[in-house]
Amino acid sequence: MTASISTLRPEFYIKHVTWSTHEQALRSIREQVFVVEQHVPEALEWDGDDATAAHLLAYDQQQQAIACARLIETGSIGRMAVVKAWRGKGVGQALLTEAITYFQQRGCQKITLSAQQHAISFYEQVGFIVCSDLYLDANILHVDMQLNI
Q1: Range 4-107 has CATH code 3.40.630.30
Q2: Exposure string (b/e) for 37-48, b if CB count within 10 Å is 16 or more?
Q3: Residue 21: beta bridge partners?
Q4: Percent helix, strand and coil across the chain, each rounded to 5?
Q5: How far, CA to CA in Å, does 103 sit from each of 34, 39, 66, 144, 148?
Q6: 67-107: per-residue pLDDT in tens?
Q7: For 27-83, what is each residue's pLDDT tens digit?
């Protein structure tokens, strides 16, 4: 799969990429957000699913990677991260919309994700519902959520 631009906005754009071609950019964002900011142990962040997953990568107009998401073929969105300077500017919403479209085009009927507690309302805004109790993952409170499409 070659990288293709899917979402284009004046301030940023989103590409569909693979781990084999864009590992450095994907790794950089996730290290910054999860490992450095949220203190997720590296052994938990790098779980071996990246090579077989599809990925979304958002870039600003200077071609700097600013956000990412991992899409597992079973209909799961994960490792969604936006660098601090770009939070609250619609990048996460655009990534989520692009991920939903990706799974709709593949005939998925249900999308799942594990949401950090602080992000529950973000996912609820597009129709995800909580389907588990709170639990700790990497020492951060999470819930499982799903969207029927």
Answers
A1: yes
A2: eeebeeeebeee
A3: none
A4: 35, 35, 30
A5: 25, 30, 22, 18, 11
A6: 999 999 999 999 999 999 999 999 999 999 999 999 999 99
A7: 999 999 999 999 999 999 999 899 999 999 999 999 999 999 999 999 999 999 999
